[in-house]
Write a structure and sequence with these properties.
Helices cover about 45% and strands about 20% of the residues. By secondary structure, the chain is α/β, with parallel strands linked by helices. This is Regulatory protein LysR.
C-alpha cells in the first residue's frame, strides 16, 4: 500500500532554489548539461534534485543508462514551477519599478514671499519633479518660519524652506542661497527724495516697522538703530506699512524690486542699511525619506 504524503504546506526560499535547479536540468536535458548553466557540480545537482523529490514526495525524472526523462508528475511540476518562477520574477520587476517611479505626496512648507527670488531653485526643482512624473501630488503651504520647522518636526511636512538663523537640533539644514534685505520707504515718505543720501539722524528719527518673527543677530542690530513704533508678522505686512508713506522698514531686495521699478519705493542709504540671511532647505533628522523627497532634494541641488 502506498504511503500517504503530506501536502506541501508552504513554498520557502529553499524550495525556489531547488525548483530553479530542476528547471535548468529539464531545459538542459541532463545533469551534466545543467552544470555550466547553474555553475555547480553534477553531484551537487543530484543532491538538489533528491532534496526536491523528497520535499514534493514524488519522482520527477528518470536518470540512468537509458538516459534522462521527465516523469508525468515531473512534467506537471515543471509547468507549475515555470509559472511560479515567472510570477516571482514579475513581482521582483514590479517592486523595482516602484522604486524608480515617483508616485505619492510631497508636502512642502515655505516662508512667504520667496517666489520673487531671481534664482528660485525650489520652483525649478518642483518643475523637474513634475516632468519626471505627473503622479506626484504637490501640497505647498506658506507659513512663518517657526511654523514650517514645527511642521517638518512633527511629520506634517516633508521639507521646508526657512532662514538659517537658530538651527533646531532635530532638523537638518541644507543651505540654498543668501537673501539680502535693505531699508525702504515709499514715494509718499519725506525721505524718498533723498533716499540715496539720507543721513543717520534722519533714519533714527523716522517711524519704522520691526518684524515679530525670528531675526538674525545682524538684523536685530540694524533694527535697534531705528525708531520702531510699529510691528508686522511677515514681509507682506511690512510692505503694507511702508506703502502708507508713514513708515520705513526692511524688505528683501527681490520682494521690493517690483515697487522700486514702478517708482513706488526706494532703498534708503543703499550699501549701508542692509543685511543678508542664508535660506536653507530643512528636513527632519533620522527620518527615512521617500523617493520623491530624495529626488526633489537632488533636483534642488542640480539647479
Amino acid at each position: 500500500m502506498r504511503a500517504l504524503v503530506s501536502p506541501l504546506a508552504q513554498v520557502s526560499d529553499f524550495d525556489l532554489r531547488l525548483l530553479r535547479v530542476f528547471k535548468a536540468v529539464a531545459e538542459a536535458g541532463s545533469f551534466a548539461g545543467a552544470e555550466s548553466a547553474l555553475g555547480i557540480t553534477r553531484s551537487a545537482i543530484s543532491l538538489h534534485m533528491a532534496d526536491l523529490e523528497q520535499r514534493l514526495g514524488m519522482r520527477l525524472c528518470q536518470r540512468g543508462r537509458a538516459g534522462f526523462a521527465l516523469t508525468d508528475q515531473g512534467r506537471e511540476v515543471l509547468r507549475s514551477a515555470e509559472s511560479l518562477l515567472a510570477a516571482v520574477e514579475d513581482f521582483r520587476t514590479g517592486v523595482n519599478q516602484l522604486h524608480q517611479t515617483l508616485r505619492g505626496d510631497l508636502n512642502i512648507g515655505l516662508m512667504n514671499n520667496l517666489v520673487t527670488l531671481p534664482r528660485m531653485r525650489i520652483t525649478a526643482a518642483l518643475q523637474a519633479i513634475r516632468q519626471r512624473s505627473d503622479a506626484v501630488r504637490i501640497h505647498l503651504s506658506m507659513s512663518p518660519p517657526g511654523e514650517v520647522e514645527r511642521g517638518v518636526l512633527d511629520g506634517r511636512l516633508h521639507v521646508g524652506a526657512v532662514p538659517l538663523i537658530t538651527p533646531l537640533s532635530g532638523l537638518a539644514y541644507l543651505p540654498l542661497y543668501d537673501e539680502t534685505s535693505q531699508l525702504y520707504c515709499s514715494h509718499g515718505h519725506p525721505l524718498f527724495a533723498q533716499a540715496s543720501e539720507v543721513d543717520a539722524t534722519a533714519l533714527r528719527e523716522a517711524a519704522a516697522v520691526v518684524p515679530t518673527y525670528r531675526m538674525s543677530a545682524e538684523a536685530i542690530q540694524m533694527h535697534q538703530g531705528l525708531n520702531c513704533v510699529a510691528s508686522a508678522s511677515d514681509r507682506e505686512a511690512i510692505a503694507f506699512l511702508i506703502l502708507t508713506g508713514q513708515f520705513i522698514g526692511f524688505l528683501p531686495d527681490h520682494y521690493a524690486a517690483a515697487w522700486v521699478a514702478q517708482g513706488q519705493m526706494a532703498a534708503l542709504a543703499p550699501g549701508r542699511q542692509r543685511f543678508s540671511v542664508p535660506l536653507a532647505l530643512v528636513t527632519r533628522k533620522g527620518r527615512r525619506q521617500s523617493l520623491i523627497v530624495e529626488q526633489f532634494i537632488e533636483a534642488l541641488m542640480q539647479t
